[in-house]
Amino acid sequence: MVSQVVLSGSGLWTPEYSISNQELIDSYNAYAQKYNEDNAAQIASGELSSKPFSSAEFVEKASGIKSRFIYQKEGVLDIQRMRPLIPERADHEISDQAEIAVKAAKLALQSANKTADDIDAVIVSCAYTQRSYPAIAIEVQHELGIKGFGFDMLVACSAATFGMHRAYEMIKAGTATAVLVINPELVSPQINYTDRDSHFIFGDVATAVVLEDATTVTSDNAYNVLSTKAITQFSNNIRSNHGYVNRTNDTDPYGVDKLFHQEGRKVFKEVCPLAAEHITEHLAAHDLQPNNLTRWWLHQANINMNTLISKRLLGREANITEAPIVLDRYANTASAGSVIAFHLYNKDLTSGDYGILCSFGAGYSIGSLLVQKR
After folding, report:
1. Whether residue 1 has pLDDT greater than 80
2. C-alpha of 133 from chain center
3. Which of 304, 276, 211 is nearest to 7 (CA)?
4. pTM for the full model?
5. Average pLDDT over the chain, rounded to an integer
6. SS3 of 372, please?
7. DSSP 278-333
8. Residues of the chain with pLDDT > 70: what percent?
9. Quick one: pLDDT at residue 3?
10. What is the mean pLDDT of residues 235-246?
11. Within a domain: residue 197?
12. Whether residue 2 has pLDDT greater than 90
């Protein structure tokens, strides 16, 4: 059995396109106005509800988001389309999701001072994969020239931490020496850009990390993974219904009920205490208190959720150094948020400092890794 697993490197790939709140709101409001005008008679008779208008100020206050990156901007702001225009690729071409995964993976390998020959397994863990099979992870493995094996995981916004859990367990068991975990979060195709309450939430990104046996570490910026903790509790409050069975249901396979939708207030009320309790229990297993941590790399879904969780844990609001926020410019990037925060804000810690990566989302699912700077 391996005595110590190490998180030895991370990578972050950011799309070249971004959309500000104002751009998104201007497009949505233009769409809402046209919709209300085109359906005035049905709205007046009560057959349809009018589309409410929004504002950039509402979005920032409700979420903390100011802008988001997107894989393909074309089509999103077109009120005749209201979704990204992503050209279909042939079977012999690399898929969109594998391509962005490879970009993040190469950065993580460089950060960990590793090559493809050093990696035994590839896990692609994210909220959505763009196809059922072959696995995106196997395609990425092929593109990188990695021997061994690969597989995909879907655990919504906890996919990154759950993927790292599997890597940790494989290394602990001695079935792998080094594992590459990648989170290519191409979520924009599943956003309903005509829905005022959710169209602003998500952004696209790809992150990756390398976990390995402590005896093989050559990185000068690495963290011992002290333990992992996970919990799932079924809830319908965050849901996406698009899938291969849709074509047999004789309903619109791209209807609004098939896209991302949530009961936001219920999620806030239920997930925050669950996440705070989860972290408290994880720390207690190591005789640690929240104030023993130097850094909190929390899931980046909503600024108000993170604020409430930190208040429950610390008895006060965490400052930006303790719990860095990236959702203002990245938005909610599904499972990648805590990894983005870790990647951007971990190099200043000193040997012996404790930190925790924690994600929480649909399922409900909550995953965490307690780490200590080497």
Report:
1. no
2. 21
3. 211
4. 0.97
5. 97
6. strand
7. HHHHHHHTTT--GGGEEEEEE--S-HHHHHHHHHHHHSSPPPTTTS---HHHH-B-
8. 100
9. 85
10. 93
11. no
12. no
- In the set 126, 157, 272, 358, the catalytic residue is 157
Two tokens, residue 293: 């941590």
Please return the burial class of 340, using the count of CB atoms within 10 Å of its CB with bins 0-12, 13-18 and 19+: buried
CATH number assigned to the domain comprising residue 356: 3.40.47.10
Name the H helices within the chain: 21-38, 40-45, 56-63, 96-112, 136-144, 159-173, 264-284, 303-314, 327-330, 337-344
> Residues 269, 188, 21, CA angle at the centre, nearest 5°?
70
* Cα→Cα distances 45→31, 38, 39, 41, 80, Å: 21, 14, 10, 6, 25
Helix (H) or strand (E) holding 90: none
Task: For 102, list phi and psi in degrees, rounded to 5.
Answer: -60, -40
Q: Distance of alpha carbon 367 from its chain centroid, rounded?
A: 12
**What confidence category does residue 216 fall into, taking pLDDT thresholds of 50, 70 and 90?**
very high
Confidence (pLDDT) at 211 = 98
Please check whether residue 157 lies inside any domain of the structure.
no
pLDDT of amino acid 237: 94
Q: Which residues, in sequence order, are CB contacts of 34 under 8 Å at separation 6+? A: 79
Measured distance CA(33)–CA(79) in Å, rounded:
10
Annotated active-site residue 157? The verdict is yes
- The band of 143, judged by pLDDT with boundaries at 50, 70 and 90, is very high
Q: In this structure, is residue 12 part of a structural domain?
A: no
Q: What is the pLDDT of residues 102-134, one digit of tens each?
A: 999 999 999 999 999 999 999 999 999 999 999
Q: How many folded domains does the chain comprise?
A: 1
Q: Looking at residues 292-317, what average pLDDT do you find?
A: 95
C-alpha distances in angstroms, 191 versus 170, 266, 316? 34, 20, 34
Residue 326 lies in a domain: yes
Q: Are 65 and 327 in contact (CB under 8 A)?
A: yes
The parent domain of residue 279 ranges over: 223-373
What distance in Å separates the CA atoms of residue 304 and residue 314, rounded to the nearest whole number? 15
Tokens 């926020």 belong to which residue?
325
Instruction: List, for residues 88-98, the tens digit of each pLDDT value.
Output: 999 999 999 99
Q: Is the pLDDT of residue 307 over 80?
A: yes
- How far is the C-alpha of 109 from the C-alpha of 208, rounded, in Å? 9
